[in-house]
Predict the structure.
Amino acid sequence: MFKKSLIVVAAVAAMALPAAALGDGGTPAPDPGAKVAAVQAKLQALKAKCDSSPAASAKCAKVAAKLLDRLDKISARIDTLEGKINSKCSVATPPAKCSQAPAMLQKLDAAKQAISQLESWIQANFSTAAPAAQ
């Protein structure tokens, strides 16, 4: 059950990030805040299951630690992507795609804020989950 919950949360986060980061200029990208709320609802259900049984709390702490680790890795990938965008678009004659760079960077920042909110929520609600090592 815990592995399935972890997979669901990771899948939702993975779907939220590309949509937020790579939304095309013509269609508005989905609101990352809505995705965060959906993930938090799933985590709330997991928390309720964890609170119902003391035996499950150790497994929940492991799941929470894995989630924090995964979110840190996603955040690092976003940082790498931002670095690539900045390096390609800071040259004297940037490619035509760089006209969309500010909007993309703004969406990536929104995704990082959503990840930060999720990390804070996990740490607050799964108090036994230590922050992942960086």
User: Anything to note?
Assistant: The radius of gyration is 17 Å.
